[in-house]
Amino acid sequence: MTKIMRQNPKRLAVILAATFPCLGIAAETALTLDSVVVSGSRVEHNTFDLPAAVDVVDAARIGADQARVNASEALVAVPGITVQNRQNYAQDLQISSRGFGARSAFGVRGIRLISDGIPASMPDGQGQAATFNLDRAERIEVLRGPMAVVYGNHAGGVIQMFTPDGKGAPSLEGGFVAGSNNTWKADISAQGEVGGLGYVIDASRFATDGYRDHSKAEREQAMVKLTYRPSVDGKLTFIANSFRQTADDPQGQTWSGYQANPRSVAQPALDYNTRKSIDHMQGGLTYEHRFGDHSVLASVYAGQRSTIQYQSIPAGPQANPKHSGGVIDFDRDFAGASTRWIGRFQLAGGKLTTTVGVEYEQAIDQRRGYENFIGTTLGVKGNQRRAEEDRVASFDQYAQAEWQGERWTFSGGLRHSNVSFSVKDAYLSNGNDSGNVSYEKTTPTIAAMFRLTPSVNIYASAARGFEAPTFNELFYSGPGGTFSYNLKPSTSTHYETGLKAIIGNSTRLDLAVFQIETEDELVVDSASGGRTTFRNAGQTLRRGLEAGLDSHWANNLTTRLAYTLLDARYDEAFTSSSGLINSGNRLPGVPAQSLFGELAWRHQASGFHAAVEGIARSKVYVEDTNTKQAAPAYAIANLRFGVDRKFGSLNLRTFLRFDNIFDRQYVGSVIVGDGNSRYYEAAPGRTWLAGVTARYSF
After folding, report:
1. Judging by DSSP bridges, how do beta strands 112-115 and 157-162 pair with one another?
2. Cα–chain-centroid distance for residue 343?
3. Distance between CA atoms of 659 and 613, rounded to whole angstroms?
4. What CA–CA distance (Å, rounded) separates 222 from 241?
5. Which of 364, 272, 319, 252 is CA-nearest to residue 481?
6. pLDDT digit string (tens) for 26-50?
7. pLDDT lower than 50: segments of the chain
8. Ramachandran region of residue 349, left (φ > 0), alpha (ψ -120 to 50) or beta?
């Protein structure tokens, strides 16, 4: 993190004070207004001088009196990002960036997830945010807009998490939190540096009964990060983590069922005992070496993931013979390698930074399917209905360049992506789904920034992007529920213009206006019992505005505002299983407006701090016709308190938080296009959480 102190021209202050009256209040203490990121440019860069919409969620906000279990805890304060906690650990969070990813039936698609340089998204674009280890996170970088396209397939946005290096004297930390719905979490970690070897080690266990019926979950996570410098110019990093989880799946609920009892689940979830277990391990090695002003980075990683999921889909003689059963069972081996060269030169009175890189990723699934019943007993593994080997690989090459002068900055990039899928079907009694399909695209991006004054930057950028179908979108989208080799990738054109201003030493304002035109949008065609099929629609159009305002007032009072306006619509009519979808209909799963606000205060002498948070979202349509009951708009408030004290070598932190203090009943997330009209996933009423953390430095 760096701190920028810039002079504030009087004319600009008058204009902004008139537009935002709250800026007229004087502040006594400077705020960290400009963070360093690597997202976008892939080299260290101040966010203020980067021609892109990018936010940094630092360790203080990640652990702001939270359990540090879900990324939604930290990302709720980022404009342009919508993170819906499904209250369903079997399906992970629902994360979208400017509408990309809102349709995901589970996990995260449309957004590139990266953890300490290792992709948390598979080569096909499907990712899992649950594998992020938030306990040791130093920061999360969130990149939206055209510059995200340089990360290739499914980069409608980029979310990167970073863990700090182990440094200094050894320290040991332990924490425990507990709260509503029999929720608890225990965590222990150690960090330090011995003989030039830096280490960070963490292990945690989490359990909850869940807010909704049939939503119990247990999770174990562990990670280790080792850093070593074999020379002054070289750095070697090893990181490994594991993630194990078992979770019941409450699925969605109908509108009438939700209104009658928000905690309730539909009967099929109970009949089939819908649930999911995950066992995930991965590790990676990175070496970075500097040659004067230039540097080379190379990394490799590998991992294994095993998943068993029980769905509420019958598959007996009366069912479609192509149905692969209601039990999904697969073992995945994945690996990848990447290298990039970064050069820094002096050119035409400015600084030229160039980056050239290559990335290869692959995943191999041994996938099996079974009936989810034996005789009249439901929710147990029955006869086998599927056996196949699924492979997906991506091979990308990219080049980026940025020239930064006294007042102008120009940047551009070009990426070529190839994503290939292969299916070898070994269960042939219901037909042969074997085959291959590949997608290839070259995507450019360009941007320019102008320093209007020492404290005001304006920028504009444009890019082309694409999203190939994921394996889960291909599996059942062909004729009669077969594998689809005919789905096309969606392509998009992104435009963005923005303003970044630092007012005095106490306020940072970020504004971005954008437009995204998409062709062959991948949309939900049908969804039932946890199985979703997809098709290509026509054109869509997204237009919006994002605003972030951070201020530090007198007496250690801080405020944060994050606002998103997103008008996402179909720009062309098409026909789906739901009927005619008219041009002008809104994209489901995307709120038109979102607002986050926080007022926080800290008493330095005692270590006491308190904050009030407000979250508001407009209604969300649940399917493409826009005729079914939309999830209503809502506004909630949260309250938190804490005390941080130091007793010699011991640091002690305690907190108590209350979420939804007015006990509002609302729909927290939706399942887009569910064929049984079970679209709604209820959010909790008033809940509490308390925690204590102790760290001892030796």
Report:
1. parallel
2. 30
3. 9
4. 5
5. 319
6. 333 334 678 899 988 888 899 999 9
7. 1-31, 317-318
8. left
Q: Look up residue 56 and give its two tokens.
A: 């940094």
State residue 380's pLDDT score. Answer: 94
Q: How many residues does the chain have?
A: 698
From CA 302, how far away is CA 437, in angstroms rounded?
Answer: 24
Residue type, 570: Y
Helix (H, G, I), strand (E, B), or coil: what is residue 589?
Answer: coil
Specify the pLDDT at position 533.
83
Percent of the chain beyond pLDDT 90? 77
d(CA 126, CA 529): 20
Q: Which residues contact 509 (CB under 8 A, 6 or more apart)?
A: 16, 20, 23, 499, 500, 501, 502, 503, 547, 548, 549
Q: How much is the pLDDT for 674?
A: 86
Residue indicated by tokens 């606000």: 597
**For 473, phi and psi rounded to 5 degrees?**
-85, -25
Residue among 225, 105, 104, 87 at smallest CA distance from 157: 104
Sign of CA dihedral 321, 327, 331, 336: positive
228, two tokens: 């070593």
- Residues 646 and 656: their CA atoms lie apart, in Å, by 19
**pTM of structure:** 0.91
Q: CA 252 to CA 622: how far, in whole Å?
A: 12
Contacts with 261 (C-beta within 8 Å, 6 or more apart), sequence order: none
Residue 501, token pair as written in the block: 């201003």
CA atoms of 514 and 80, how far apart (whole Å): 10
Beta bridge partners of 168: none
Beta bridge partner(s), residue 202: 189, 223
Sign, CA dihedral 127-128-134-136, equals: negative
DSSP-derived letter for residue 488 is: P
For residue 125, the Cα-to-chain-centroid distance in whole angstroms is 12
pLDDT of residue 535: 87
Stated as kind and residue range, the H or E segment containing 441 is strand 435-453
- Domains of the chain in start order, with CATH, are 10-178+196-697 (2.40.170.20)
Residue 215 to residue 677: CA distance in whole angstroms: 20
Among 235, 365, 209, 254, smallest CA distance to 299 is for 235
259 in helix, strand or coil? helix
Residue 385 makes CB contacts below 8 A (sequence gap 6+) with 315, 323, 324, 325, 369, 370, 371, 427, 430
The token duo for 536 is 């290509």
Query: Residue 444: what residue type?
Result: P
The per-residue pLDDT for 530 is: 58
DSSP 68-136: S--THHHHTTSTTEEEE--S-TTT--EEEETTBTTT-SSSB-SSEEEETTEESB-TTS-B-GGG--GGG
Residues 265 and 248: beta-carbon distance below 8 Å: no
Q: Are 369 and 325 in contact (CB under 8 A)?
A: yes
